[in-house]
Design goal:
This protein is mainly alpha-helical. It has one domain (2-293). Helix content is 64%, strand content 2%. The chain contains 14 helices and 2 strands; from the N terminus they run αααααββααααααααα. The chain has helices at 2-6, 22-50, 76-90, 96-122, 130-149, 177-195, 201-220, 223-229, 240-258, 267-284, 291-294, 296-315, 325-331, 336-356, and strands at residues 160-162, 170-172. The protein has a two-stranded antiparallel ribbon with strand order 1-2. β1 (160-162) and β2 (170-172) form a beta hairpin. α7 (201-220) runs parallel beside α10 (267-284).
């Protein structure tokens, strides 16, 4: 919005020329999202407390988590508000990739909101059943994949998959791209949801991943830089860096209140939306496979659940004391803050490995 209002004035006032730069508007999006989160956070928490919107804790979860019952949840609404407002203020609104990213994020958020609302009404940790939730995620993701392949030529996202660490390893999977993207987005969404089990753990990891994909988006949207680094150029995806920056700012602001001991939880409305957002940016920047590296922590969390369930069904034995894996370390005696910080370090290292693919080709 600000770009469309102020940049045209640059012919008369040279200072407004800064609005042409994605880097300047990305910085503005970070600051705006942080301020919105910090200013609205206390009011939002009080509002949730007044409405008795509190977290229900799984009976089979770690014993120490039972003390967290009743902590305000659905804080993801605050994150989504800060991200949406900041993006609309600082991004170029004639770029369809911005609207696509916001649309997918808010749609996944709507699924999470429904899940959270059912839990609150039932006063149990039972919302949408797993099959229904996954089906809704696939519908949103499949629709997004179809839209991606039908974008105008100047914003075209090819049905190709780029393999990291190789210069010319590009595979065109044709019509399989739609189910591939659908599964990737749904998987990313659920992986972040599984990671959201300790105070600040998921939002800290999302912050790191969003910053990383902000760099990928900027690179992929700049023809000169993309050509130099030999990555696919996607017209208009540079603007998605503004969205990523807004997500970084909103994550910082939310972490202020979500840090241990948490005053608020993001709920599924936050975790499902944030996973969908990261997955969408990975697709648009043509760094889908790299998401396994950048989101390595989310992958580990999801794999721990898959391994645990598979092992128990096949052998009747558990590999971990409890899954997802952060609960395993809790039951092994690690304090919650220690687990959180060490997992953040892992998330940062995974992101560095992902960024290295820009140069190691």
């Amino acid at each position: 919005m600000l770009y469309h209002l102020l940049f045209p004035l640059s012919d008369r006032f040279a200072a407004f020329n800064v609005f042409r730069y994605i880097t300047f508007r990305s910085a503005g999006a970070v600051v705006t999202a942080v301020l919105l989160s910090l200013l609205l956070g206390p009011w939002f928490i009080r509002k949730l407390q007044g409405l008795s919107i509190g977290q229900s804790i799984r009976a089979e979860g770690p014993e120490r988590h039972h003390a967290k019952a009743g902590t305000p949840t659905m804080g993801g609404l605050l994150i989504l508000f800060a991200v949406t407002v900041s993006t609309l203020l600082w991004a170029k609104l004639d770029d369809p990739l911005i609207w696509l990213t916001l649309g997918v994020t808010l749609s996944f958020g709507a699924i999470g909101f429904t899940d959270d609302w059912l839990k609150i009404r039932r006063r149990k940790n039972l919302g949408l059943n797993a099959a229904t939730k996954f089906a809704l995620q696939l519908v949103v993701a499949g629709t997004a994949a179809t839209v991606i392949l039908s974008l105008p030529d100047e914003f075209a996202v090819a049905s190709t998959v780029v393999l990291p660490f190789f210069k010319t390893a590009v595979i065109d999977i044709g019509w399989l791209y739609v189910p591939f993207v659908a599964l990737l987005l749904a998987g990313a969404s659920n992986a972040v949801n599984l990671t959201d089990g300790l105070d600040g753990l998921a939002i800290g990891a999302v912050l790191i991943a969003a910053a990383t994909y902000g760099i990928f988006s900027y690179v992929a949207g700049n023809a000169v830089v993309a050509g130099y680094l030999q990555v696919p150029f996607v017209g208009g995806v540079g603007e998605v860096a503004v969205f990523c920056s807004a997500l970084v700012g909103a994550s910082i602001g939310f972490l202020w209140f979500n840090a241990h001991p948490a005053e608020i939880f993001m709920g599924d409305v936050g975790s499902l939306a944030l996973g969908g957002a990261i997955g969408t940016v990975a697709v648009l920047s043509k760094q889908e496979i790299v998401l396994v590296l950048v989101g390595g922590l989310f992958v580990l969390e999801a794999l721990s659940v898959i391994i645990q369930v598979s092992s128990f069904k096949l052998t009747g034995k558990r590999v971990f004391r409890m899954a997802p894996i952060h609960h395993h370390f809790e039951l092994s005696g690690w304090s919650e803050p220690k687990i959180i910080v060490r997992f953040w370090i892992l998330a940062f290292l995974f992101s560095l490995v992902g960024l290295s693919t820009l140069k190691l080709r």
